[in-house]
Amino acid sequence: MADELLGACGRAREASCALARLTRAEKDATLRAMADALERDAAAILAANAEDVAAARGAGMKEALVDRLLLTEDRIRSMAAALRETAGLPDPVGTVVAEKRLRSGLRLVTRRVPFGVVAVVYESRPNVTSDIAGLCLKSGNAVLLKGGSDAARSNGAIVASLASAAGVTDAVQLLPAERTLLRRLLRMECEVDLVIPRGGAGLLRFVREHALVPVIETGTGNCHVYVDRAADQEMALRILVNAKTQRPGVCNAAEKLLVHREVARGFLPKAQAALEGVELRGCAETVGIIGCAPAIAEDWDTEYLDLVLGVKVVRDVEEAVAHINRHGTRHSEAIVTADAAAARTFLAEVDAAAVYHNASTRFTDGGEFGLGMEIGISTQKLHVRGPMGLAALTTTKHELRGDGQIRE
Amino acid sequence: MADELLGACGRAREASCALARLTRAEKDATLRAMADALERDAAAILAANAEDVAAARGAGMKEALVDRLLLTEDRIRSMAAALRETAGLPDPVGTVVAEKRLRSGLRLVTRRVPFGVVAVVYESRPNVTSDIAGLCLKSGNAVLLKGGSDAARSNGAIVASLASAAGVTDAVQLLPAERTLLRRLLRMECEVDLVIPRGGAGLLRFVREHALVPVIETGTGNCHVYVDRAADQEMALRILVNAKTQRPGVCNAAEKLLVHREVARGFLPKAQAALEGVELRGCAETVGIIGCAPAIAEDWDTEYLDLVLGVKVVRDVEEAVAHINRHGTRHSEAIVTADAAAARTFLAEVDAAAVYHNASTRFTDGGEFGLGMEIGISTQKLHVRGPMGLAALTTTKHELRGDGQIRE
């Protein structure tokens, strides 16, 4: 396997050099051919997926997770549509970021260029496979896909289909879903330019621990909604219910509610009623007011990805900010208030990729941010923060042209 | 020490929150106070430096390295001048990077914000200490400085002097120069937002191996000058001599010469004459022409930082590009040619932060690039490539303002 992995990396490097030279029209044609291939091969992909689903059910996987694994004709059509949408997005490669004449007389042009070889490590959902392939290819990168073992057959069928489009075989490669292989991959800093883990805290920790390759961490969201003393409570309820329940399994869903002490007694019973079906775990003060289950210390650091919500009463906006900066994952954080000063404090002092005033945390998303598609939501500070579109998959190169300049 | 380190990180975090709130005028006043302090405390700093220098000479340090360690009144004046220059640079914090209304009606403003707590790990030169402190402070970051043990007394005196300026004590902290402490620091990803190693390949490897904290690697330069068949040979000689000898100990100095086979016989003897005092190590073909010492395999991967140059004859520009992409450190690479097509190929295909046509590699520098000062030269693709000015010490934050928006 060691040599196979090196071989895959070598082919990816070759493919990345070829990709970097393609025009936008050539890349878009390839993306459309990949979309056509998925639709043509839908039956084979569904058959492979049915085997994954049967194996997962056989192993006792929960139905909520089975649903993430499941492909349907509709979902395959959406995958193809996403590839065509990516073809329609502007190409970041070659874009001039800066252009100036230096004091030496040199002309400096700084352009966006592809990273080269990108590895993406993800779990479950096989429909993500074609999204990632499309975004990497459009941004001129070869991609090594390392999906979850549950979805291995589905991913195999999807990548085989995508690779039937001309020139894609080495540009989009699926690696076996093994942790030992992942560990080796993460140490191949000469062969791989970037690794993007998409998944839970465990995967991120594993990648951070083992990576010599540069990493962009994505998608852990222990997100908070803070209901201030001066909140419009109807608005707060609407935002809270949306942020918690509209899609509880995603990273921009709310996991915690913080409530200003002065309005807790009035607001919490309304919140409890509005969040019917959501398990509430409260601080002592919350339990005193609405009699829910008590939270334990680790609740404050937990991303449930489920219909569970931690609830805490805070003294003021400063305590809310301090709690978020201590326990949050720097993803998306919201304040609901009519008090401009409190909003200013919250937006300035909370350390997160996205900070919201009077809106749901659920808007942290490439589509909502106007980026088209996204390859993930960065929760780190290096390179890119929040939703990552095509430009996030590029780096820059400084080109300098002179006529014999030397440094004095 | 474990608790001391945690304490230092905690104080740095507090200081970073305060720094993030300062206006540009407040930060600039602090920088000027730091500059005044250095000049006021010059005698104490020189006394501490004299002890470092005596200890280094006693331990048999080479004079070239002693010179890097040595401070003089002039050098202290330069340090103060650099702080005042940093005060004069525009403040990146708060700069709006993007501003738009989203389809949901939310207003999105993306701004530059400080990283928070930055650790900089560097070797020898104590004059760098105040440069780093100034750049971090101006960009709103608290900094943990981890200098070389050779310069421990000098760095201690410099930081004590800087810290006498109001509000700097916790914002600029010097950590003991111990590897075990560095190892712990590199794993404190909750306490430290970014680590920047400045130094040789060994330090970079150590940091990459042990870091959980995000890293920006800087300053290893195995840089090449490629003399093409169509080069103006007089220009090529001037560029080569400048790139190799003007300051051989810095990362943007040339370490290798590649020469097109068709001009090797004519050019190499002239290069040998022009590079008098430089030890040449050649490939077999080079040795056949000019009779220099033969290079061994590891020469091609070595950054000498000395008056040594590896010399290799190549078939064409493609072989030059392939050699550079295999052995280079992605820092600065130059082609000398009058052939526009060869230049285009070289600039497009070489994978490096800075690619030069008809100019010396020595221009890869924050000052030359018009950034004012630089904190290092990034040789990685993530976040920033090439010279890192103040903006490279910031990340971004997305602020979203609504009036109750929820996601449908």
Description:
The structure is a homodimer of 408-residue chains. In chain A, the strands form 4 sheets. A 7-stranded parallel sheet of chain A has the order 10-9-11-8-7-12-13, with helices on both faces. A 4-stranded parallel sheet of chain A has the order 5-4-3-6. Chain A has 14 helices and 16 strands. The model of chain A has no long low-confidence stretch (mean pLDDT 95). The radius of gyration of chain A is 23 Å and the shape is globular. By secondary structure, the first copy, chain A, is an alpha/beta fold. In chain A, helix 2 runs antiparallel to helix 5 (73-88). Chain A is 42% helix and 21% strand. Chain A has 2 domains: 2-218 and 375-400, 3-Layer(aba) Sandwich (Aldehyde Dehydrogenase, Chain A, domain 1), CATH 3.40.605; 223-363, Aldehyde Dehydrogenase, Chain A, domain 2. Strand 16 of chain A pairs parallel with strand 13 (354-359) of chain B.
CATH architecture of the largest domain in chain A: 3-Layer(aba) Sandwich
Which bin fits the share of residues in helices of chain A?
Answer: 40-55%
| Broad CATH class of the largest domain in chain A | Alpha Beta
Strand order of the largest sheet of chain A: 10-9-11-8-7-12-13
User: How is the main sheet of chain A built?
Assistant: 7 strands, parallel
Overall tally of domains of chain A: 2
Terminal Cα separation of chain A, in Å? 52 Å
Largest interface, by Cβ-Cβ below 8 angstroms: which chains and how many residues each? A-B, 67 and 67 residues
Here the CATH topology of the largest domain in chain A equals Aldehyde Dehydrogenase, Chain A, domain 1
What sequence of helices (H) and strands (E) makes up the elements of chain A? Answer: HHHHHEEEHEHEHEHEHEHEHEEHEHEEEE
State the assembly state of the protein chains.
homodimer
Q: So, the CATH homologous superfamily of the largest domain in chain A?
A: Aldehyde Dehydrogenase, Chain A, domain 1
Uncertain parts of chain A: none
Q: How many strands of chain A?
A: 16
The DSSP helix count of chain A reads 14
Structural class of chain A: alpha/beta
